[in-house]
Amino acid sequence: MAEPGSIAERVKQQADIVRLVGDYVRLKKSGQNFLGLCPFHSEKTPSFAVHPVKQIYHCFGCGAGGDVFKFVMEMEKVSFPEALKLVADKVGVRLPERRPRTPEEAKATRLRSALVELHEQAAQFFQEQLNQTKEGKLVRDYLHDRGLTDQLIQTFGIGYASGMGDALLRRLRERGTQTGGGLPAKNELVEASGLVNKDERGTLYDRFRRRVMFPIWNESGRVVAFGGRAMGDDQPKYLNSPETPIYSKSRVLYNLHRAKEAIRKQDYAVLVEGYLDCIGVHAAGVGNVVATCGTSLTDLQVRLLARSARNVVVSFDPDTAGVAATERSLNLLLEQGFQVRVLALPSGFDPDLFVREKGGPAYREKLKESLPYLEYLAERARGQFDFRRQEGKIAALNYLLPYLARVPNKIRRSEWATELAQRLQIEEALLREELRRAAAERRPEVKLRPEQARVLESAAKPAERRLLQILLENEAIRADLLTELEDSGAHKGAGLETVFEQALGLGRAGESLTLERLAEPVGEAERRLLFEMAFDDSTNARGTLEEARSCLAAMLRRKLEAELRGVQGDIEQAERKKSGGELRELLARKQALRKALAELN
């Protein structure tokens, strides 16, 4: 791309492609080359190679390749001249003045530079208003009450927009820009910045008034917009800059310019919703935190994040809106091949409040306890749906399957399918078939056909169905069987748990156990099974006490084995968290379960 002897060739000779690519991709030495995850397509195993001697890159997965200029052009979505300037700036090479190809290009470049300069001036003005005025002192006291130290206020450039209607406007009119001619008139330029509004008479006035001001930086660390939090009862509570030639909210992550190095070093990012959440988590000693600025996460923001790491912990508010935002964000992150965990805070706490009331160490501990996203969703599903009923299982499957279908790694997707089948107590083959169909048809929901519903019923294992049949048909041993069932708890977690609970309730109340009483409160699948049993006229339908106890033992064995699998998973998590006390309790529980299984066998 660069001709011998050209200025581009001289810049290329000065550039270190490993260092420049390393600003976007986490690279590791491998022989004479460096390897990393390709930034141009989703992958789990590194296939992206950088050759430090030949100063080229190549992805053995998607085929992308080129020199340092091609890489910057692809990553930044810029032209070759713009990539040349970016690389030259990074390596400290001064480029000769270049005449833009068109007057429009020159005008657009000067406009962007002028708008950035206006925002830098505005940021300085807001900080002066905070630090040098009586009104600002009251705001500083408020910020101190919110746990923001003077150092944090300075680090994040927090300022204040006074209640005067045109204070910033007058300042910007007083100050000139250093970008040369050819720009709109001063009023038009200020209006294009988004820092002012215009009323119906055409009079300009400050967009931000009586608000705490949070500068928003682009990835290069230049102020391109602001977020303002109302001090009084003004609405909206948060007001952001509009879209401008230098700012698009879907392309910016708050604090990324400061956090990206920590993200690369720790190989994961912490994603929060708002400015104060981000500042609070940063104050807790978590330097790899970024925020969505209170907006829904976008595909472009996810791509920005992917330049630094492919692992993320989502730490949104636990309220209804925050949970919904978490679930929307999971889809985007999963589709881009991220490994996602979720930090679930107690009800009533957002990250900022949690850090202020519980402290930074408590938040960092919560960070260690964050759950893999499907485990988090499974817990959410358990709280929303009744896993004991067929309808609840289908509803939970409808809820979980879209997320599972978005897992790009086939092996990981298979592991989670097995895990969910065990949790929901459904046939794993059914789940895998629905997963395959949903992925192929790109549909968001599981729609079970009648014949599939019959397969789902088989989640009630033969031992459960036979025991229930004996309870219904053999009145002579019913009372003893109900006592042994309640004492053993073998029905807990079984596919027909709801039916057995109903039978136990009737037994405790001294009421007769009839088909109609059993079928009254249960789900459609269980009701159908009960009536099918009633039509079984075989001679051995009544069964014996010995056969019934064999069914009980099989159910209890299955229950203990499921508990043992769950405890083993908890042990692995406790080992990762290095939680000694919890680990000892879990190991003791594991030993007790193994002993119970041995005695049962």
Short summary:
With 601 residues, the chain is an alpha+beta fold.
What descriptive keywords fit this protein?
single chain; 601 residues; alpha+beta; DNA Primase, Chain A; DNA primase DNAg catalytic core, N-terminal domain; Dna Topoisomerase Vi A Subunit, Chain: A, domain 2; 5 domains; five-stranded antiparallel β-sheet; five-stranded mixed β-sheet; 16 strands; elongated
Description:
The chain has 601 residues and is α+β, with helices and mostly antiparallel strands. It folds into five domains: 7-91, DNA Primase, Chain A, CATH 3.90.580.10; 103-247, DNA primase, catalytic core, N-terminal domain (DNA primase DNAg catalytic core, N-terminal domain), CATH 3.90.980.10; 251-369, Dna Topoisomerase Vi A Subunit, Chain: A, domain 2 (3-Layer(aba) Sandwich), CATH 3.40.1360; 377-457; 460-601, DNAb Helicase, Chain A (Orthogonal Bundle). Helix 16 (373-384) packs antiparallel against helix 17 (390-405). The model is unreliable at 179-183 (pLDDT under 50).
Write the layout of secondary structure elements.
Layout: H1 7-14, H2 17-22, E1 28-30, E2 33-36, E3 48-51, E4 56-59, E5 65-66, H3 68-76, H4 80-91, H5 103-132, H6 134-145, H7 150-155, E6 159-161, H8 167-174, H9 186-192, E7 196-198, E8 204-206, E9 211-217, E10 223-230, E11 238-240, H10 256-266, E12 269-272, H11 275-283, E13 289-291, H12 299-306, E14 311-314, H13 320-335, E15 339-342, H14 351-358, H15 360-368, E16 371-372, H16 373-384, H17 390-405, H18 410-424, H19 428-441, H20 450-457, H21 462-473, H22 478-488, H23 497-508, H24 515-519, H25 524-534, H26 545-577, H27 580-600
Parallel strand pairs: 12-13, 12-14, 14-15
Antiparallel strand pairs: 1-2, 2-3, 3-4, 4-5, 6-9, 7-8, 9-10, 10-11, 15-16
Helix pairs in contact: 1-4, 3-4, 5-6, 11-14, 14-15, 16-17, 17-18, 17-19, 18-19, 21-25, 21-26, 22-26, 26-27
